[in-house]
Design a protein that fits this description.
Layout (H helix, E strand, L loop, with lengths): L6 H19 L2 H31 L3 H7 L3 H7 L4 H38 L6 E4 L6 E4 L5 E5 H5 L3 H16 L2 H14 L4 H23 L2 H14 L9 E2 L5 H9 L8 H43 L2 H4 L17 H4 L4
Parallel strand pairs: 1-3
Antiparallel strand pairs: 2-3, 2-4
Helix pairs in contact: 1-2, 1-9, 1-12, 2-5, 2-8, 2-9, 2-12, 4-12, 5-8, 7-9, 7-10, 8-9, 9-10, 10-11
């Protein structure tokens, strides 16, 4: 446990540094899926490691030990974690859980707001055109979602660029990109180290929609012009609940569209998968070590009670039975190991 419990922290830090630049060079769709998976696994590993570290301190509280029926002195003698580390882990975990709760409420509010805006839009088709001179273009997730474009935006684009813009927004709805955004926002709220992953994920979603629009239109240059002109026209007009073609770092998106499509690379995905597997295995190993430590502390308390309260004639020479029949050597698998 001394080493394995800290490995999820190292894996998270490594992914936070390496994942964004690597994701920018991968095809956007697999990059988005990989980032979402990495965020979920590392956020769970982060919370699990903090919980294990915090529990080593909480378990030594006499009232907790009495409820769990284990020996505080035995637990302290085996505990490899300093008290200050356990206390700091408990504090960080509490702050992260509160942050996750706040982010969940905010994300739910954004999605509810998007559904309400969808219901208020005129017409019942996928496309809603607003009679507004302010250039706007975005997709609102809903059931179903809607694409919103203002007349001010349509006037600033040519026919081919309008088609590219609408194809981009349809890709957001078809790919359910708001689900990816929710995953990254919530995992970043739980684990602050994942904020670079969330930022890279938002960029990858825009690239995903760009590439699908380029396939639909058949001309990458047209899509690049549409993205650039739409971004210049609608600067500062984004909405938190919307998926807009003007999102992300627009110059990088335009450069990517003017270049050939990104080549498929399996090595970065395999390396990332290996890191996630190491994260899961180390957390499972730390949890198993913690469980064995508690088993040993319970056995120590039970044998201590047996030595002080059990008469020799009650159980003969069998040291494996205490007054309640609870004592068992934790090294004997038929008694000492828990099975879940």
């Amino acid at each position: 446990m001394l080493i394995s419990v800290y490995i999820p922290f190292l894996v998270t830090a490594a992914l936070a540094v390496l994942a964004p630049p690597v994701a920018h060079r991968l095809p956007p769709r697999p990059a988005a899926l990989a980032l979402a998976c990495a965020a979920l696994v590392t956020a769970a590993g982060w919370a699990g490691s903090l919980a294990l570290l915090a529990f080593t301190g909480v378990a030594q509280i006499p009232q907790i030990a009495e409820e769990g029926r284990w020996s505080v002195s035995a637990l302290r003698s085996q505990d490899p974690v300093y008290a200050v580390v356990a206390a700091a882990s408990a504090l960080v975990l509490a702050v992260c859980v509160v942050s996750l709760g706040v982010a969940t409420v905010r994300q739910g509010h954004h999605l509810l707001r998007a559904r309400r805006e969808c219901a208020k839009l005129p017409g019942h088709t996928e496309l809603a055109v607003l009679d507004d001179d302010v250039p706007l273009a975005f997709a609102l997730p809903g059931a179903p979602g809607r694409i919103v474009v203002s007349r001010g935006m349509l006037r600033r684009l040519g026919d081919a660029e309008r088609e590219a813009l609408l194809a981009h927004e349809r890709a957001h709805l078809r790919g359910r990109h708001h689900v990816f955004q929710s995953v990254w926002r919530l995992t970043a709220a739980l684990n602050p180290l994942l904020r670079p992953v969330a930022a890279a994920g938002n960029f990858v979603l825009e690239r995903w929609a760009d590439e699908e629009a380029a396939e639909r239109v058949g001309d990458r240059t047209v899509v690049a012009h549409a993205v650039g002109r739409a971004a210049l026209a609608s600067a500062g007009a984004s909405r938190p609940a919307a998926l807009a073609a003007t999102g992300g770092v627009v110059p990088q998106r335009v450069r990517a569209l003017l270049a050939p499509p990104p080549a498929r690379r399996s090595l970065p995905l395999l390396a990332g998968g290996l890191l996630l597997a190491v994260c899961c295995a180390s957390l499972a190993n730390a949890a198993s070590d913690s469980d064995r430590m508690l088993d040993s502390a319970q056995w120590a308390l039970c044998t201590a009670h047996a030595d002080t309260t059990t008469a020799p004639t009650n159980h003969g020479d069998d040291p494996g039975h205490g007054p309640d029949g609870c004592c068992a050597d934790p090294d004997r698998p038929e008694h000492g190991e828990r099975h879940f």
